[in-house]
Amino acid sequence: MANTAAVQGSYDDLFTAVPMALAALLDGGDAGGSVAVFVDGEPVVDVWGGFVDAARTVPWQRDTIVNVYSVTKTMTALCALVLADRGELDVDAPVARYWPEFAAAGKDSVLVRHLLAHTAGLPDWHGPVAELYDWPAATARLAAQAPQWEPGTAVGYHSLTQGFLVGEVLRRITGQTPGEFFAAEIAGPLGADFRMGLPAEHDHRVARTLPPPSQDEDYIAGAADTSVPNTATAIRLRDGNSVAWRRAQIPAASGFGNARSVALVQSVMACGGAVRGVRLLSRAGRDRAWEEQFSGEDRVLGMPVSWGLGYGRFGTTYGWGGWGGSLVMIDPEARMTVAYVTNQMREPADDTRGVEIVMSAYDGLKGLAGA
Q1: Quick one: which of 216, 229, 262, 349 has its CA closest to 78?
Q2: CA atoms of 128 and 167, how far apart (whole Å)
Q3: Which residue from 31, 85, 175, 367 has the fewest beta carbons nearer than 10 Å?
Q4: Considering only CA atoms, which of 228, 235, 352 is closest in space to residue 300?
Q5: Which residues carry out catalysis?
Q6: Smallest Cα–Cα separation from 234: which of 307, 127, 356?
Q7: How far apart are CA 311 and CA 75, in angstroms?
Q8: pLDDT exceeds cutoff 80 at 337
């Protein structure tokens, strides 16, 4: 393989296109990243390469982890699906059944599934950034807020708020924070190196997120469509790179892991609810995640979307991406999961990396089918 000296790890020969695709991104100027492709719950690709720092002096290691931003939403959604499958959470129930204070300001008709499908009408975070690190303050603010539209009638991406909304319902049911529940019920049993709320002992493994070329740490998160007016609190890259963000429970955006751990966890969804002998969901419990909750033009993103229960729907595949480029894609028919994580941001309008990685994985799948 030419020009792939920067890529390490292992892969099935049929999937050679995947490490080549990662190498091309690194050769094209990206700092670092990792890619994993799991089929039937087992890795056929587990590769990484590049550097963790802007100066390109510290190599990306096998156990390097990175903030995957909104890919975290798929982890929080899985927690909710597990509780629903156990009969402890009814997605068709009003949120206020579990969280009575949430009924304030006309939100008594908001259902749990509205939270998972971004149709609850609470897309914007209006509090100070520091309040994101204070769970009781953040959830109290959202409980008091009035919806921007009649819940269930429109879709608008709840980029930061979804994690607190779903997470507080989880907490009211289990008594655990989403990060605690995820660690005990999902990451622990699977042996997955992914965390919401990162303990200090893992800091040395973190690759800080680097801004797009010509940007700095004041780079602001936002939709590619800047014509949509928005009064929400601006989140800067320096916030996402802060220690406070790392430690906090922001279940929509503060998950830390690598491609291997993302692909392992979400293989549960690709493989009918169980992976490596660990069953987290019944097949029916998994299947309900794909049922379309809403389809239409997203008021925040300015583009058409289709949502299942916490997962974006893209034809016969499901998943979601994060600020900066990380992505997970699930194909239940092929029992395949593809994960890509990176510390190198690009401008959203110019970022096709995740799609390129996914397409390279399908090249391997064709070979597997013909083998």
Answers
A1: 262
A2: 19
A3: 175
A4: 228
A5: 70
A6: 127
A7: 10
A8: yes
